[in-house]
Amino acid sequence: MEQKLEILQYCPICKSNEIAESLQVKDFFQSREIFGIYKCKYCGFHFTNPRPNEQSIGSYYKSENYYSHSNSNSGLIAKIYQKVRNYTLEKKYKLVSSYSAKGNILDIGCATGQFLNQFMQKGWACQGIEPDDSAREFAKTQYGLEVQKSNLNHLPGNHFNVITMWHVLEHVHDLQEYLKQLRRLIKKDGVVFIALPNIQSYDANHYKEYWAGLDVPRHLYHFGRENVEQLFNQSGFQLLITKPMVFDSFYVSLLSEKYKSNPFHLFSAFFMGLLSNISGMGEKPNHSSLIYIFKPI
Ligand SMILES: [Zn+2]
Q1: How far is the CA of 21 from the centre of ligand 1 (A)?
Q2: What is the band of 2 on the pLDDT scale with cuts at 50, 70, 90?
Q3: How far is CA 175 from CA 72, 178, 180, 272, in A?
Q4: Which of 3, 27, 150, 169 has the fewest CB atoms within 10 Å, counting from its CB?
Q5: How many domains does one find in the chain?
Q6: pTM for the complete prediction?
Q7: Residue 40 alpha carbon to ligand 1 centre in Å
Q8: What CATH number is given to the structural domain containing 10?
Q9: Virtual CA dihedral for 171, 169, 150, 178, nearest 10 degrees?
Q10: Is 163 helix (H, G, I), strand (E, B) or coil?
Q11: How far is the CA of 46 from the centre of ligand 1 (A)?
């Protein structure tokens, strides 16, 4: 039989072999298979292990319920997701444009292109990367965006004023190679925005193996703040600041309560989302999801 799983012997960030399983997690979303989450004893990084290899992971995305790619509007969670997404799209636009003058933007994992379209409307030169065929076609035909399937190698170096990855890096197999490409593509005075679930957040600690931010096996990595900073420092980036994503805690809590089969999931999720956001406030935000803003060194 064709080999579909790959086993990591080393920590993907610090390369230590002092790694051990810390949690077993079910793929509640689709396959119902169990995956291990390993922790590096040296740097504290968490990662899914063993994991589907690049050739086989596609089958774990084949679900009509994968909201990130879906514009259908049925079901309560999907409805909430759509409303919040429209609001956060606007907020993301404001955040990004407050860090950079108009120029070239690359959105990696651009899905159906709503985020990039805002920039195109304002006269930015936009490029997208999206592996999902139907999402990519939608972005091209609906908005006339330039979107490629995957390969960053073909894009020009020292070219982009802004690169964004909204909840994408946790899906990338070869982290170091990807970061090398980001460093090559970004202009010397450019800015990179990386949004990731935060395994150190209050809701992650509360829900443990039910935390929807784990999303195995689609999420290959489960980042904490120090892991992200170390990884990007290794690749020639410096962290400017982190920003909270306050709606993610409600959405992730709602899904997590569903995974726990809690009949009072709406109430509990709202309460937990609120708690998570309050406990995440501080000089260094510790919310359910964080946006890391980097510049090249
Ligand atoms: Zn490590």
Answers
A1: 13
A2: low
A3: 32, 5, 9, 32
A4: 3
A5: 1
A6: 0.90
A7: 5
A8: 3.40.50.150
A9: -120
A10: strand
A11: 8
CA distances from 142 to 79, 113, 162 (A): 21, 9, 23
CA of 227 to the centre of ligand 1 (A): 8
Q: Which helix (H) or strand (E) holds 251?
A: helix 246-259
19 CA distance to ligand 1 centroid (A)?
Answer: 8
Q: Which residue has the tokens 């490629």?
A: 148
Tokens representing 123 are: 């006269």
How many angstroms is it from 33 CA to the middle of ligand 1?
A: 26
Cα 88 to middle of ligand 1, angstroms: 33
User: From the CA of 111, how far away is ligand 1's center (Å)?
Assistant: 31
26 alpha carbon – ligand 1 mean position (Å):
24
For residue 5, CA distances in Å to 34, 55, 78, 177 come to 13, 10, 31, 20
In sequence order, what are the residues at sequence separation of 6 or more whose Cβ sits closer than 8 angstroms to the Cβ of residue 196?
167, 169, 170, 223, 228, 289, 290, 292
Amino acid in the structure at residue 208 = K
Distance from the CA of 75 to the center of ligand 1, in angstroms?
40
Which tokens hold the place of 200?
Answer: 């150190």
Nearest to residue 164, comparing CAs of 218, 215, 119?
119
In this predicted model, what pLDDT tens digit does every residue of 176-224 receive, in sequence order? 999 999 999 999 999 999 999 999 999 999 999 999 999 999 999 999 9
Q: Which domain holds residue 219?
A: 5-296
d(CA 165, CA 193): 6
Q: Tell how far the Cα of 130 is from the centroid of ligand 1, in angstroms.
A: 29
pLDDT in tens, 235-291: 999 999 999 987 788 888 888 888 888 777 777 878 778 888 888 888 888 888 999
